[in-house]
Design brief:
This is Chromate resistance protein ChrB domain-containing protein. The protein is α/β, with parallel strands linked by helices. The chain is 43% helix and 12% strand. It is built from 11 helices and 10 strands.
Length: 277
Amino acid sequence: MPAPDAIACDQLAKLVGTPRAPMILDIRPAASRASDPRLIASARPLPENSLSVADIRTLSADLSGPVVVACDAGHGRSQGHAALLRHQGLRAEYLEGGHAAWVQAGLPTCNPAPITRLDASGRSVWVTRSRPKIDRIACPWLIRRFVDPRAVFLYVLPSEVASVADLVGAMPYDIGEVFWSHRGEKCTFDTMIREFGLRIPALDRLAMIVRGADTDRLDLAPECAGLLAASLGLSRMHSDDLAQLEAGMGLYDAFYRWCRDATGERHNWENHAGPAR
């Protein structure tokens, strides 16, 4: 049973990828990250030289909601920083067993190496075509839930994606002739899962649904048609692309939880009123 102010790996794993996930802070030393650069999925790496008491005070102002601090093995480094964050009024726990226990349990990790553009606050910045339908909503959902919860997404005219990417230092995605795009029969969502090393069965299932809906192959899974219909409906409900993205986050949250937890569940109408008299 976890110690007070600790969270076990299996408990945290149930939250990662959902709207209830805490902010995970990776505070491993630089040497540890060099030997294993993978991050716990959705974790935010903090520079080793920015973990003084004053830095914690500054950091706490940038955080909201629950926080989980992860070091190598869940000892004094993470426990101390979780205690300092609690002192600043945050709900903070340390990860029991740390990064080592998470990896040993085979829980989801993310390869951060493909992220090449960060803003001054350490957030990844992305740009794509305006008027998104499927891939351009699914990819931001994937990034915010499993890679970088603070990621910034920009939608611009197709002809301006490249110039805006250069202007603001953003990574272009789901457009031709860029790294983050379709590859063969796979869509950009597939590309991101592969490049970030997200080996999660529920994401693989969701990827097939996204792929079928995004590439007009509705035969890939029965759910493809439903995702297409919901996506086109959202596109017509929202003229603001960022408002559509926020609405789409809930849609993909629901599809992910179905892929993870509910594929075997069936539903039918039952008369709960009892026999007629």
